[in-house]
Each structure stands twice: as structure tokens, then as C-alpha cells.
Amino acid sequence: MLLDRIDSPSDLKQLSLAELPQLAQEIRQFLIENLSATGGHLAPNLGVVELTLALHYLYDSPRDKFIFDVGHQAYVHKILTGRKDRFGTLRQKDGLCGFVKRSESEHDVWEAGHSSTSLSAAAGMALARDLKGESNKVIAVIGDGALTGGMALEAMNHIGHEKRNLIVVLNDNEMSIAPNVGALHNYLGKVRSDKTYRKAKDEFETLVRKIPAIGGKLAKTAERLKDSLKYLVVPGMLFEEFGLKYFGPVDGHDIEKLVEAFHQAEKVNGPVLIHILTIKGKGYSPAEADSFKWHGITPYKIESGQVVKSVGPPVYTDVFGKTLIELAERDDRILAITPAMPGGSGLLGFAERFPNRMFDVGIAEQHAATMAAAMALEGMKPVFAVYSTFLQRAYDQVVHDICRQKLNVVFAIDRAGFVGADGETHQGVYDIAFLRHIPNMVIMMPKDENELRHMLKTAVEYEDGPIAVRYPRINGLGVPMDPELRPIPIGSWETVRDGDYAAIIAIGPMVQVAEEAAELLKREGIQARVVNARFVKPLDEEMLLSLAKENIPLLVLEEGSEQGGLGGAILEFYALAGQQHISVGMLGVPDRFIEHATIKEQRAEVGLTPENVAQELRKRVVRKRQRAT
Fold it and tell me: 380 in a domain, yes or no?
């Protein structure tokens, strides 16, 4: 097999161009076989096999910089840069990262887990290169979905202004995670499908090639004619108006055509955009047929494409989606907004039931937040369903447009807490810290899926400003569901287990961890109370003062950043209330990024286990007794 001979880009360069299609086929089979065991981003990587081969065949990585937008489509890049033997560890603890990772390889020059960053990175690297007087190539690979992100358009505007030498490869597969939306998508569809332009372009290039020794004024005239042809048949030519020389569309699965396009791009002085057309999931029929499902996939059976799933209670995301439909049946003000994540956010059912009240804005979190603000201002009840990690991208809009105006926007924050295999770029552990200090914001998190339903009821009925419901990326506990939804008093906590030796104040899934820890302590005669601190903001100040009067040790448990989290909020409250004598410990996510692993392993890494919680509380109870004697 050719793939057996490839351990570095230099090995690839020993092959002939004619051998690369066979290597592409072997790489696809390698990916299909390996990801059937580990899971991962299959469809995006099957779509960029030929492109990645062409890049490494023509250019000299890492001297030449390859910048992959998002980074989850870099598996082929990893295979070609000496990491194929580690694919059995993909997305596992201490194993190969599912995204580009600078600590893994010198060939990984830029890290990203969020979209639309590659063009800004490319601009920065090209500017730095020129300032240093170097001559390496800078090539950014961005998808048509990521191009809808405002940051990408800002970067493209600046790239056109600077006129530095760099290449942008637009990987157009008509998909991001969900099907693309918007005017840019429609524009690319026009370019993609305009057979008149493509036929005329091909015929013109064939004619020019037949002219011997074309040069001088004739060559310049031919180039102008070719440009005029673009404007004539495809009005506007958006990318050229931005200042990027446009080549394409090019068949992204034809290596010879890709190589030819890159050779043509090298002749241009200034920024170039090569528009390639690819098929997401190319070479594996289940992934081609449903690239949305196979964007990121759990282990599966290769022959049938059947996904291997564990049977258990419904995931929180599904409970959210079904409950939102139930609430929207009763309140026609309720509408849903998502930034290109209708499936991941559990809104496909809502979109089917209320197509006129579902808005997928594409990869545009900032726009989504401000649009939600305006809808709330007009009396609607927008529910902004967004992953915690992606809400970070709309921080200014949350502060400036929503909270400052005290608008009734509901934030449904999915993937709150650890997210497992997606790792550090996707951990949902920072939203409490960046939301709770904003005036007018209410933040809550349920202990189980039944409480999530009641919190959604609370949120849509709340009429005094923005309110956030955060929930994790896990299955629920399988608790019984109450038949009737009821609002929860804002800022109220509940005691779910009695005890007078100490108290564990926990939130979200950590309530279950706290109960298990309390059960371990009970066997030793230590009765620990468990408090479900379901509101991070406002705090239940009455309960906190009551605990202060009892003067028992407290341990705050949260699957979020210790800095700025629930524990910090409680310490701040006691300090301002003059209750500094209270012993308050904190267990959460420490001040470092937590890498990919299972959620269970990530919790164990930071001590969020029943055994460690019991040990921490045990020490505090012992110290309390020692001081008493």
C-alpha cells in the first residue's frame, strides 16, 4: 500500500502525481476503518482528502503555513505528517486531538475549534512574514459555512486592502454542520451552478492555450478578457470586489486540476481565492447521503453505517427541544434562534412544528444575539439556543444589546460543563464567569432533566430581563417527568438531602455527585447536607445566611471555572455580609484548559468525583471538630 510508505510530507513528494488518486482512496479507507472504532469528524475529512494531498505535495510544511479553519477537517493532514499510527487514540485521553494542536506537531501552525478564524490568522502570518523579509507561502482553508461568520468577512476586507501574497482555499461543500443558509450561500450556489460561465471559461482557456508563445500585451489582454467574462456571466464577482483574485470553481476531488489551480495562483502577485467544490463524506455512501449526521459521529459499523449507541435516558438537549415545543404551543411569542446548530441544539422538531418561528442564522453568533434583542424589544420571546463555547463569541452583544437594555431574551446554553472528546476548545466551563457579573442577568442550571423542563417554563414566563438556562452534554438521570410544568421562584435553592455536620452546595450534574459523596460519608457517621443551588444568580441569600448561623463547613461543587464561578459568588456574598468566619471550600475547574477525554475522565482529572468530594468534606469536618476541642 502507498499509505504504508508515507510518514512525512517528504515521503509524499516521492510519489508521482498519477499515484495520488490511489493514495487518496487508501486514506479514505483508513479514515473509515479507524473512525468506526473511535468516532470523530468523518464527513468533513473524507471531503478534503485530495485537497490536503495537493497542499502537501506542492508546498513545504511547516515552512509554508497551512491554516485549517475550525481544524476538525485536519485528519488527513495529521496522517501525512507522521501521526497515522496514533489514530487509534483519536479524541481519547492523552491521545490524538480531534483538532489541529500545536503541541502535537510542528506542522500544526494554528489552533482552532471555532469557525471563521483562518483568514485573520492567514493575514497575520502573511504580514509577519513580509515584515521579517521571508518568502514562505501562507494558505488558509475555509469552508463555505465558515465564510458566513462576520470575522471572516472582516478579514477578507483587510486582506484585499493589504494585497499581501496569500492563498485562500474556499472549500465549498454546501454544508457547515447543518445545511448553510443566507445570501452568501445563495451567491456561491449561483457561482457553483452557472454552467454557462464554466463552459465559456473552459473554452476560453483552451483557446488561449492554443496560441503559441502568448505574451506581452496579448497576454494582458487575454487576462482582461477572462476577467470581463466573469463579470459578464456572474455579476458582482464578490471575491474580486474584495480584492482577491478568483480562480474556480475547481473540482476538489481532481488532484490534477487542484495542482493546476495552485500553479496558476502562484503566478499572481497579491491575495488569491481558489474556489473548490467538494462532496462532504466523499467515498463512504452513508456519509455522502447524510453528511449532517456524519459530520461528527460516534463509533459505527462500517458495512451498514449503523451507529453504535448506548441505550439510556434522553439527553438534556432532546428534553429541551421537546419542552420548547410544548411551551410554544401555548405562547405564540416564543421563537427559536440558532447559529447553524439546529440539530445539535435539539431544534429540528421545533423547526418542523413551527417553521415560521425558527431562525437559523448560520455561523453568526453576534448577529443572533442582537437580532434576539430586537425581537424581544418588539414583544417576542426569543430563545437563543447556543452551545456554551459558542456563546463566548457574542459576549459584547450580550452585554451591550441585551443586558444593558434589560430585554427578555432566553439563553438556552447547551454543552454547559465538560464536553468530552471535543476537548479544550469546546469546554462549556466559562459561561458562568462571563455572565454572572453582567447586570440584569439571571442564571440557572437544573439538577436533572425534569427540573430543566420547569426552568424553561420559568424562563419563558420571566418578564424582567434576560435569563439563562444552562444544561450539560449528557444523558439525564432517568427521573420521572412531572405532567405539569411550573415556574420556579427566582433565586430559590432547595435542600435535597438533610445533614448537620457539613453542607455541599452543588449545581447541575454535580448535585448527583454531591449526593453520592454524602452517601459515602454517611457510612462513617458524617451527615452531610446537599443543597441544589439551582440559581447561580441571584443567589439564595436567605439560605446562605441560615447556613452561616449554623456555622458548619461548606463545600461548593460546580463543573465550571472556579474563578468567577458559583463558589466565588458565595465567597463574595459572605465577605460583603461580614460572615468571614464561614469555612467555604471550592471544587470546580482549575485555572487551566482541560484537554480531550471522556467526561468521566475530565471530572476525575479535576477532582469532581464522589470519592474526592467526600475526602475534601471529611477533612473540613475533622478540622472543625479539632477547633471545637
Answer: yes
According to DSSP, residue 244 is labeled P
Whether residue 212 is found in the same domain as residue 284: no
In a domain, 69, yes or no: yes
Q: CATH number for the domain including 122?
A: 3.40.50.970
The answer on 223 and 173 residing in a single domain is: no
Lowest-confidence region among 30-34, 238-242, 261-265, 517-521: 238-242
Residue type, 14: Q
Q: Which tens digit of pLDDT belongs to each residue from 179-201? A: 555 555 555 555 544 554 455 55
CA distance 398 to 409: 10
Residue 234 reports pLDDT greater than 60: no
β-sheet with 410-414: strand ranges across = 358-360, 334-338, 381-387, 410-414, 467-470, 442-444, 535-537
Task: Clarify whether residues 53 and 117 are in a common domain.
Answer: yes
Give a yes or no: residue 486 inside a domain.
no
Average pLDDT rounded to a whole number, residues 147-176: 90
Exposure b/e, 18-46, CB count within 10 A at least 16 = b = eebbebbebbbebbbebbbebbbbbbbbb
Please indicate, yes or no, whether residues 439 and 537 belong to a single structural domain of this protein.
Answer: no
Q: Give how many domains the chain has, as a whole number.
A: 4
| 8 Å CB contact between 253 and 148 | no
Q: Give just the sign of the alpha carbon dihedral 590, 594, 599, 605.
A: negative
> What is the C-alpha separation between 73 and 96, in angstroms, rounded?
14
Q: What cell numbers appear for 376 in the block?
A: 424581544
Q: DSSP secondary-structure letter at 343? A: T
Kindly tell me the sign of the dihedral angle through the C-alpha atoms of 231, 237, 242, 246.
Answer: negative
338-395 pLDDT, tens per residue? 999 999 999 999 999 999 999 999 999 999 999 999 999 999 999 999 999 999 999 9
pLDDT of residue 292: 82
What is the DSSP code (8-state) at residue 234? S
229 confidence band (pLDDT: 50, 70, 90): very low
Whether the Cβ atoms of residue 362 and residue 180 lie closer than 8 Å to each other = yes
Instruction: Pick the closest to residue 387 from 317, 321, 462 (CA basis).
Output: 317
Task: Determine, yes or no, domain membership for 300.
Answer: no
Mean pLDDT confidence for 261-282? 94
**8 Å CB contact between 585 and 623:** no
- Phi-psi category of 282—alpha, beta or left, where left has phi over 0 and alpha has psi -120 to 50? beta
DSSP classification of residue 452: H
In whole angstroms, what is the distance from residue 329 CA to residue 368 CA? 23
390 plus 461 within the same structural domain: yes
Report d(CA 593, CA 271) in Å as an integer: 35
Q: Which residues are catalytic?
A: 280, 365, 393
Domain of 610?
Answer: 494-628
Residue 173 and residue 204 in one domain: no
Assess contact for 491 and 535: CB atoms under 8 A.
Answer: yes
C-alpha 491, offset from chain centre: 30
Q: What is the pLDDT of residues 388-436, one digit of tens each?
A: 999 999 999 999 999 999 999 999 999 999 999 999 999 999 999 999 9
Please report the beta strands in 404-561, taking only residues with DSSP state E, as ranges in sequence order: 410-414, 442-444, 467-470, 494-497, 502-506, 528-532, 535-537, 554-561
Residue 122 has pLDDT above 80, yes or no: yes
pTM for the full model? 0.88
What local confidence, expressed as pLDDT, does residue 232 receive?
41
One domain for residues 336 and 277: no
